[in-house]
Design goal:
carbohydrate transmembrane transporter activity; about 425 residues; 19 helices; membrane; Drug/metabolite transporter (DMT)-like permease; Sugar_transport; transmembrane helix
Length: about 425
């Protein structure tokens, strides 16, 4: 039993760290807002990319038959997944406003305080860390706080100049903190779904419907209706590809984040995935040259913040849950099963990475391959018409960081397949 707990803990840590790599890279296209595009336009196009990407890599892993069977078995979770998507959509739109008003360097660490909100909700609603030793509780709490402190240090380290993005606009700060609250609350449906045994690949299907519908409503209501610049962007194919690509990168990162939340809980998984600040800094500093004019004090903040974030992640990753903590989690699973009439032992097995009676559902149908072909074709079609965005970039670092992205994907995918077969 202890070896199984330890293995799932290691798997959750791997997923959380891989999520950080991919979620950090997904923020790079948001810098297009500095080129004058509407925040609603950026958000809608990126979410359209998320929705399209959902039907590529994830569909190949399990197939639509499995996904819809899982959703129909737990119908009560569909509304929770849509709600989570709506919360994400509002948060993502707020982040674009924050980037526009105070810049990515300040906004990113502010909205990454969502890990503290997630830690609070996990403790209050799902009794996470109950039964944990004082040492493990301290590791998780101090690790989460350290990551937030490091994120703030890294954010301030990239501030330079006196342009409009360096100004501390109240509107930008409010938008960033609002995004943090939305994202921190969004993890409540995540955890509720996994305590009921839902697979992350199924959850994200309903999730993307909620986020696309919400962003579309926001755009129509607040950005000029059908005259919004968002719909004009769909005709600018050279730019649209990069926003769709950002959506694809986000889908991969979010799937790993959800597996981390499943196997570690939101109190451990979310702070680990928030190491995306470190990777966001890497893209900002190395690719976009955000540290080009930084003085030695700013560079010292970068070094100190990076070390603190690594130590925070290390603290959380070594806080392996005890038997008493797992007993508390099993009680939470029992409450969900009693409330919605689910099979307790089957749900518990799914939470541990094992699923039964789904072999036939996982068989790929011809339409699965057609869906993947159409979704991939959209990306290829946009890519062939893509142009280099109007941003100064170091392409050598683009290649280097892309290699790291692919390497982390291989490690994370292999680990999930080895231990759980993506269950």
């Amino acid at each position: 039993m202890r070896n199984e707990i330890h293995s799932l803990h290691i798997l959750g840590v791997i997923c959380g760290l891989v999520a950080g790599v991919w979620l950090g890279a997904a923020e790079a296209p948001v810098k297009l807002v500095t080129a004058g595009y509407s925040p609603f336009a950026i958000s809608l196009c990126m979410v359209a990319g998320v929705f399209t990407a959902r039907w590529t890599f994830p569909t190949l892993l399990k197939g639509t038959g499995y996904v819809f069977a899982d959703l129909m078995e737990k119908k009560h979770l569909i509304v929770w997944a849509i709600l989570a998507g709506a919360l994400w959509a509002v948060a993502n739109t707020l982040t674009v406003f924050a980037v526009r008003d105070v810049g990515l360097a300040v906004a990113f660490p502010l909205w990454n305080t969502n890990s503290l909100f997630g830690l609070l909700w996990g403790r209050l609603l799902f009794r996470e860390l109950e039964g944990a030793s004082n040492r493990n509780t301290g590791k998780v709490v101090l690790g989460a706080v350290a990551i937030v402190i490091a994120a703030i240090m890294l954010g301030f380290s990239t501030l330079h100049g006196s342009g409009p993005q360096a100004a501390h606009s109240i509107r930008g700060f409010v938008a960033a903190i609002g995004a943090s609250l939305m994202w921190g609350t969004m993890y409540v449906p995540y955890r509720k779904a996994y305590l009921s045994g839902m697979n992350p690949l199924s959850f994200v299907t309903a999730f993307t419907i909620g986020e696309l519908g919400t962003v579309l409503i926001l755009t129509l209501a607040l950005d000029g209706g059908t005259h919004s610049t968002a719909f004009q962007l769909f005709h600018i194919r050279g730019v649209l590809f990069w926003l769709f690509l950002g959506g694809f990168v986000w889908v991969i990162g979010d799937l790993f984040q959800q597996f981390a939340a499943k196997y570690l809980g939101i109190s451990r998984g979310i702070p680990l995935s928030n190491t995306n600040q470190l990777w966001g800094l890497a893209w900002g500093a190395l690719v976009f040259g955000e540290l080009a004019t930084a003085n030695s004090a700013h560079k010292l903040l970068v070094l100190a913040g990076s070390v603190i974030m690594i130590l925070g992640a290390l603290s959380i990753s070594t806080a392996v849950s005890s038997g008493r903590e797992h007993t508390s989690r099993h009680e939470a699973v029992m409450r969900e099963c009693d409330r919605y009439g689910l099979d307790y032992y089957r749900t518990l097995a799914a939470l541990g990475g094992e699923e039964f009676g789904r072999e036939g559902d996982e068989r790929k149908r011809w339409w699965d391959y057609l869906i993947v072909l159409v979704a991939t074709g959209i990306f290829v079609w946009l890519g062939l018409r893509a142009v280099v965005p109007p941003l100064k970039m170091d392409f050598a670092w683009v290649i280097g960081l892309s290699v790291i992205l692919l390497a982390s994907l291989v490690v994370g995918t292999w680990s999930l397949w080895r231990w759980t077969r993506f269950s």
